[in-house]
Design goal:
With 320 residues, the protein is an alpha+beta fold. It is built from ten helices and 15 strands. α3 crosses α4. The longest helix is centred in the last third of the chain and has 23 residues. It is globular, with a radius of gyration of 18 Å.
Length: 320
C-alpha cells in the first residue's frame, strides 16, 4: 500500500505582532481583558498593504521545501488553501508556482475557508495515493485582515494573517492514516463574506460577517465528531494520539474540543494566543511551530481537525 507522509513543514508570519492593546490604541472599542477572556487571543500578525497571500505563501513554501530536503523542481502537485487569494484569477497556487520557479506541475486553489488546509491535504493525499503524483506542496495562506470590518469589534479582533506549508510524499512508510471531509451549505449564513466583484465594482457586502455564538456551538460539535470519525477509521482511540491540532479559532473552542475527546491540555497544540485565527493557515502554522520547537517528533500520531465557513469541516490522522 502507498502512504503519503509529511516530509517537511514551514510557515511565515508577516511583520511584527500586533497586541490587543495596540488594537485598542488604534481606536477599536475593546480591551485586552475582553479579548483574552473570550478568545485566548493576545496578539496577531497583520500583512502590510503591499503583501498578498502569495507573498506570505512563498517563504512558508521555501521553508517547507528546505525542511524536506527538496528543491522546487521536485514538486509535481501544488495546492494552496485560501479564501483571500491575490486575485479572482489566476489562482494563488499558479502565482506561487511561478515565484518558486516550477515550470510545470498541477496547481490549483482550494476554498474551504478555515477547513481549507485539511481539505487541501486530503485532496493531495488522494492524488498521490492514486499514483499520478509523487510529491505535493500544500500551503494554507491568508490575509484575512483584508476582509475584516475594522468597525466591527466582535469580528476584527479575532483574525490574523499568515501562511503554513507542508511537503507531502508518497512511499511505503505510514504517514496519513485516515481522513474525512464534510460540508453542510445550509449553515452558509452564520459565517460569510457575502459580496462579489461585478462590473468593475463590489456587489453585496465584502466584509466578514459572523454569528459568533452559532459558530462556537457548531465548531465544538463537529470538531469532536470528525476527530472521532478518523480515529474510528484508523482503529485508534484519543489516548493513542500524541498531539491534537484543531483549527486555531478560539482557545475556548480548542479546549472544549480537547476536553470532549478526553485529551490532556498538554497534548493540545495552541498558537491562537499569538496568531489569532489565520483561517486556512492556522493548522499548518501550528504544526510547523510544534515540529520546529521539538514537541512533535518522528513517529508521533497527530490529529488535524478543521472547521470553517460553508460550513465545512474535516480531519486528518497522521503519523509524522
Ligand atoms: N471587545 C469588547 N466587547 C466586545 C467585543 C470586543 N472585541 N466584541 C463584542 N463585544 C461585546 C458585545 O458588543 C456584547 O456587548 P453587549 O452585551 O453590551 O451587547 C458583549 O461583548 C457580548 O457579546 P457576545 O457576542 O454575546 O459575546 P460572546 O461571549 O458570544 O463572545 C465571540 C463573542 C468571542 C465571537 C464568541 O461568540 C466566539 O468565540 N465565537 C466563535 C467564533 C469564532 O471563533 N469565529 C472564528 C471564525 S469561525 C472559525 O474559524 C470556525
Amino acid at each position: 500500500m502507498t502512504f503519503t507522509r509529511i516530509i517537511g513543514t514551514g510557515s511565515h508570519l508577516p511583520g511584527p505582532a500586533v497586541s490587543n492593546d495596540e488594537l485598542a490604541a488604534r481606536g477599536i472599542d475593546t480591551t485586552d481583558a475582553w479579548i483574552r477572556e473570550r478568545t485566548g487571543i493576545g496578539a496577531r500578525h497583520l500583512a502590510q498593504p503591499h503583501e498578498a497571500a502569495s507573498d506570505l505563501a512563498l517563504p512558508a513554501a521555501q521553508a517547507a521545501l528546505s525542511a524536506a530536503g527538496c528543491v522546487a523542481a521536485d514538486i509535481d502537485l501544488l495546492i494552496v488553501a485560501t479564501s483571500t487569494p491575490d486575485y479572482v484569477f489566476p489562482s494563488t497556487a499558479c502565482l506561487l508556482q511561478a515565484r518558486l520557479g516550477i515550470n510545470d506541475c498541477a496547481a490549483f486553489d482550494v476554498q474551504a475557508v478555515c477547513s481549507g488546509f485539511v481539505y487541501a491535504l486530503s485532496v493531495a493525499d488522494a492524488m498521490i495515493a492514486s499514483g499520478r503524483h509523487r510529491r505535493a506542496l500544500v500551503v494554507g495562506a491568508e490575509v484575512f485582515s483584508r476582509i475584516l470590518d475594522w468597525q466591527d469589534r466582535a469580528t476584527c479582533v479575532l483574525f490574523g494573517d499568515g501562511a503554513g506549508a507542508v511537503v507531502l510524499e508518497g512511499g511505503e512508510r505510514p504517514g496519513i492514516l485516515a481522513s474525512a471531509l464534510h460540508a453542510d451549505g445550509r449553515h452558509a449564513g452564520i459565517l460569510s463574506v457575502p459580496g462579489n466583484v461585478r462590473g468593475g465594482g463590489v456587489t453585496g457586502d465584502p466584509m466578514l460577517r459572523m454569528d459568533g455564538q452559532a459558530v462556537f456551538k457548531f465548531a465544538v460539535r463537529v470538531l469532536d465528531e470528525v476527530a472521532r470519525e478518523v480515529l474510528h477509521k484508523a482503529g485508534l482511540k484519543p489516548a493513542d494520539l500524541a498531539w491534537l491540532i484543531p483549527h486555531q479559532a478560539n482557545l475556548r473552542i480548542l479546549s472544549a474540543t480537547a476536553k470532549k475527546l478526553g485529551i490532556a491540555a498538554e497534548r493540545l497544540v495552541v498558537s491562537v494566543d499569538r496568531h489569532g485565527n489565520t483561517s486556512a493557515a492556522s493548522i499548518p502554522l501550528a504544526l510547523d511551530e510544534a515540529v520546529r520547537d521539538g514537541r512533535i517528533r518522528a513517529g508521533d500520531r497527530v490529529l488535524l481537525a478543521g472547521v470553517g465557513g460553508g460550513f465545512t469541516w474535516g480531519a486528518i490522522l497522521l503519523e509524522m
